[in-house]
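Inputs:
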Amino acid sequence: MPYIAATESDRAAMLERIGAASVEELFDDVPARVRFPSLDLPPPLSELEAMREVEALAAKNLSASSSAWFLGAGAYYRFIPAVVPALATRAEFLTSYTPYQPEVSQGTLQAIFEYQSMAAALLGVDVVNASHYDGATALAEALLMAYNAAGAAGGRPRALLCADLHPECKAVVRSYLSAFPIEVEELALGPEEAALKADQSTFCVVAPYPGFSGELGDLAAAAEAAHAAGALLVVHADPIMCGLLKSPGELGADIVAAEGQSLGSPLSFGGPYLGMLGARSALVRKMPGRLVGQARDGAGRRGFVLTLTAREQHIRREKAVSNICSNQGLAMLQACVYLAAMGEAGMRAVARLSYDKAHYAASLIAGIPGYSVATGSFFDEFTVRTPVGAEALAAGLCRRGIVPGLPLSRYYPERDRELLVCVTEMCTRPQIEELARALGEAAA
Amino acid sequence: MNLVEEPLLFELSSPGRTCVSLPEGDVPPAPLPAGLERGSIGLPEVDELSLVRHFTRLSQKNFCIDTEFYPLGSCTMKYNPKVNEQAAALSGWRNAHPLAGEEFSQGALELICSLQAMLCEIGGFAAGSLQPAAGAQGELAGALVIRAYHDSRGDGRRRVVLVPDSAHGTNPATCTMAGFQARTIPSDAEGGVDLGALASALDDTIAGLMITNPNTLGLFDRNIEEIARRVHEAGGLVYGDGANLNALAGVLRPAEVGIDVMHYNLHKTFSTPHGGGGPGGCFVGVRPDLADFLPGPIAVRKGESFGLAMPPRSIGRLKAFYGNFGILVRAYVYLRMLGSGGLRRVAETAVLNANYLKALIEGTYAVKYPRRCMHEFVAQGGLAEGVHTLDVAKRLIDYGFHPPTIYFPLIVPEALMIEPTETEAKETLDAFAAALLAIAEEARTRPELLAAAPTTTPVGRLDEVAAARSPLLCYRG
């Protein structure tokens, strides 16, 4: 049988040493009435057959690599340099354990420290932790962190949420906060206008950068208004955009959450992704998740360790700041290699390509009769008003190998003539022009 | 292992170096929004060969399953088949967008649907969700389901959850996140839940009990049916923490002994490499009347095709999209290759290996509960005056073994929690036991070897206290 080394003679020798007559006897504590059930599972396959079956299933999905791809909305089809999978899938990273034993985990620990350092630089904050499940859960934990820092003790129960956050982020925030005495108020306002509503009952204002619609908003003004009311500014940011435009930290955010999938992780039907969470250093002891710090051994050699663990569940149990136990180790490592491979110039270039191509696409689409661009200032994603139902329009184009974006009716049924279009470095000028042509034909 | 100090990326950086070549711009440049253009980011700049050597050298500073034995209690560090990685890396998955729409995602939805069905069958659950991203999030899902169940019955005063003192730290931490108060229940002399303490804790404020069975002592709680009966009688629900499912899959369906809600860690039992800390994957299964509360969306069969649906009274979303899909592919392939017979063989061998290892060392290392164990057992490393579990753990490194889980569970002093898993050969177990026995001898004759360990690693024991006192969490020039 695969993956098990024990032979019949091994089993016999081991049972003899244990002093048991049979393997079944080892399970005597399990109630006999229900022991060894017959499970109705499909019959086992060989490796060859299993791969064939999975290949057939995988082939039934529409692949971003075989289409002109303009769909983003929180999951991005981006270029991944070959060094990223080549290094991140090394068995010494892939099959190692959580670095609780630092002497045999310096590879993982130093990589986390380097990720923390590069991610903090990118987001413009003092500290970034070793990661969360995804951007949405990082945002939910950011709110809990803000609540623990500024809400729970200070008699401030309210969080103000910009409505233009990703709908799935908002849903996750609501699930995570459902058991806490926190009032979440959603405001259909830009970041600055929302922050102006903050008062002494508000512990934080939560703003997207950019919004789900693509709109950029004035983060600096939002920070000023939130701080004037004594509230923290929590931002959900796009890390690729931070290669070109000012980081949320530079603009005054106190806590920054981000979806890091764009940094070297494939689409993979929604996961595993990378939850990035960073903050000003004053808030670090309220931060959830793993943190790696620099240390010295007895001989004075530099090394790295998991640190400030008194925040975490395995030490603090019910008093921990979160129940999170794992981090997205491999996705984080992919982001680490990605950021190092791109470097200063690469990050700027990939963001610039996306920005220019998106603005070129928007200018073409705005010129098609019946269409208009609803987003004012944006990075690489913008909302288009369509003259016909966007869902049917998108489905029609998908079948022709052009995936034009996300029909917003998926999340907001009443917004049935809006399409969220994303243009990254993967899109070529001919593809953009083909999209514009196809949209024109679909409306005609 | 690579013992040479590796510089940080920042120390290898030289302005102007890069690894990537991107296409030239093929559209006119657009003006940037006023005042928002970013200056320098502060990222390192390295060439590709330096980058490759850097991360390769770093990787050589790790122990890993592919080179060392990890007898880590409650972590199930089994060998993970390479075919899983190949399957998860297929282009049809890597390039599948979560919002492509049901019509264009049939393969992914079919896989999720089939996996849900197999996992329900294994545990005896009526329904399940693959939304949670990892075990701790599965616990949160389960706890929120329990809360929603009581609230739906107008029974919102039930806000206390009982947690045995042997539980993982995530259990009480999860209770707090779900708005419950965690109350600790002591273990009895057999290592199980103390029935007397349970009886006196049960009242109409009890939302439920979180139980790990086999527990973190590696012991199957023989009273499980009685425990569940009493919690149910008091109006509570029983939550099963599936961290130790590797001992039970194919042996017992937890739902058949009264578990109402349970999470399984897909990355442990159903085989995903640990990745130095994650990502994980998780399934949460429930009895029929709790199905409507599950986190969603979940995959459903719609006639001849597959789609997504939100359970009608769902606790909501716990992450964006549909779970850690890449991990689901691995679990699917693993289960398709094992089938029901293979699954039982896994549990049997895991338990056989643990009992064998226990038999080899228990004459030398104390084992607090001298019963047959399941997939793991807890020994004690306080071998002599001044010799502690930490010293045994660090000395094992010099013998080429990853240490067991140490100082957990909290109820056993000097705990060494050992889980060999089913994939290790008898020869490996023999060698590991021989190392433990040799270390016990050293503890008597040359204790300085233990105190100085490890000496075969890139760094020795690090000063964690100093590191936490003035934390340096980022490179600072």
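Chain B touches chain A through 200 residues (CB under 8 Å). Flag for discussion at group meeting.
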